[in-house]
Amino acid sequence: MDADSGVGNAKQEPATTVVGCSCLSPEPSLVVIDPEGDLTLVVGEAKCAHYYDGAPKHSRAEDSKAEDSRAKSTKAKGKKKRTSAKLLPEDSEASNRSKQEDDVFLELPVRYRVCSKTMSRTCPAWKVLLSGKFAERRPASSSTASESEWVVALPDDNPKTMEIILNIIHCRFQNVPDPNKPLDMESLYQITVLCDKYDLTALLRPWAQSWTTGIRKNDLLEAPWLEWERTAWISWVLGDLNRFSEVVTGLVLDSYPGPNGDLCCKTKNGDDRPLFTTTLEPPGLVGLITVGRLQAIEALLKLYQDAVAQLLDAPSNKNCRRTAYVQLVFPHLSDGQQVYDCPALALGIMIRSLARKGYRPLPDPKDVPIAFRDLKANLLSVQTADCGCIYTKTVDIQNKGSKMPFDTDFIPFSRRMDLEIRAEKSGI
Length: 428
What we know:
Elements: E1 11-12, E2 29-32, E3 39-43, E4 47-52, E5 55-59, H1 65-74, H2 92-101, E6 102-107, E7 110-114, H3 116-122, H4 124-131, E8 151-154, H5 159-169, H6 185-198, H7 205-211, H8 213-217, H9 225-238, H10 241-254, E9 256-257, E10 263-266, E11 272-274, H11 285-313, H12 323-329, H13 342-356, H14 372-380, H15 390-393, H16 397-402, H17 413-426
Parallel strand pairs: 2-7, 3-8
Antiparallel strand pairs: 1-2, 3-7, 4-5, 4-6, 9-10, 10-11
């Protein structure tokens, strides 16, 4: 059994090879889930990407000439039939050229023979789809096995993931990925996408704990942004509150507004990439992150606003007992010279340092163009003076700022209740 794909011993007929960039797929392969099944699902659609020097130059069939190209290529002599996600020309010279600069990647749909009654019993949405008044219902001419085939197309679904779900609902557990091993991030993401779409999360109860072991142990601080987004979706679908809260906090602290106003993250190449461009967004999550980010920034700026106000309101302290400390910080003071106004001195130092770093006056939280974590690092580098007297000692912004956002919980009560309901379904 292939633990990653869950295909196992399923009967599969090889698809015809497409040589070069034909764009149009051959007849999809057939996987028999139920030998006595009365329904054929065609899952996925043909997707072609033509790469030249690593850059996509061509995608899906765009004109009728592609069909002629496919017909000619499939009739070529000496071509070996094979099923592959990456299809290259057979001759060595062309193959070498393709590997270096001109690659073709082709995804093909897959046909699954299943039991319509099993599908309907498992999922209310499928029951409505197959027995309602939709075009996918059983054709009137296919009431008997000898008549035309009942075919339903699901072009938006992932074939590999759908096969795992179909094996589960048809009790073909030997063809399901190992329940004792973690599942890779991408497979788990695709599974949760389908389970959320068709409300099948409860099917994952025997596997959810073990399959998510890997993502619950990952150090997200070292993970790329795509893993943050994938983990956010997976933990939301399965109701993993602790992991979801951790991801949301990370996104709150590290996201920032991009050129178009969308919340962005920084890629390894230094580019701005809007959040959830390649990952499904849990409903309302970007809004939740936006609110949390503004709240965290507002609290951090208020810490410095309050410090300035406190020093402005402090009375002059002409009897400072820590003159030696101030002289150490400010060596231009002569020996024995008294410091007559400690709060004014501390205030001047802080305001000058804030101004030099571009934070005087302090900005409105909505106008901060950088991530909270970067803002925090900038403000913690602001110079302060504390001679130890009662008035300057209370301005402890460095210690307070380093602890922010003070273990703030960015998950509202309604979202927590939703996650608890989801956790009951998944068994997390």
